[in-house]
Amino acid sequence: MYVRFILLFFLTLTLSGCGVSQKPAKHLFILSGQSNMVGLDPNTTFTPTIAAAFGEDNIVVVKDALDGQPIRHWYRGWQPAQGNSPKASAYLYNRLFKKLKPIINQNNLTSITFIWMQGEADAQQKHGSVYQASLIGLFDQLAEDMARDDIHFIIGRISDFDLNNQHFKDWTLVRDAQTKVAQQYPRSTWVNTDDLNDGVNAKGEAIVNDLHYSVEGYKKLGKRFALSAIDLINQNSAPQAPTPNQ
Description:
The chain has helices at about 1-15, 35-40, 45-55, 90-105, 120-125, 130-145, 170-185, 215-235, and strands at about 25-35, 60-65, 110-115, 150-155, 190, 200, 205. Helix 3 packs parallel to helix 8 and helix 6 crosses helix 7 (about 170-185). The N and C termini lie far apart (about 60 Å). It is of the alpha/beta class. The longest helix is centred in the C-terminal third of the chain and has 21 residues, at about 215-235.
């Protein structure tokens, strides 16, 4: 009896050391940005798509977004191209991280994907020249604060709303910066939104080349974000999850 007890004791230690007793691994998806992220309801297409790929019990989705906000309200190290103002505040990043902290502490996170839909405010406020450096800085900031070097980043490139820079003077600068970051930053990609701002909006109004997206446009955006996330995770882990039909 004693010998059997000792064997069971050492078997328990061995299994524990192999990770059997650890919490189940989960995939964390973070959605943040300004108005076009506010307009995205994850429960419509985003969450069902990733749940189909990884299992509903294996995912955690966190969304925190606010209309009309420049990137300096997320990135602590933000600096204007000239002068000392406006100032960085990062209060929205702090608000987001407050939501993330208990999730980080309570879960065994096998992957983290940060999905970013923002840039219109910086284009309007003429901060496009520093947007690329700011976006890289934000990604590095999140990676450092979460102590992870394997975070996936997905950027929703701002749409074709103002390609002539008539209303938002740095529109194309921000668009170009977003694609450049996605191309040079590890584990990153960007999502096209140029076809999402025509149709009927949530108020039932017909829109053409609008700043914001149609009802169907937001559904498509959620699906594109989800499929991009699945692809990035599959590229960097094994075994792969099946990708749902587009």
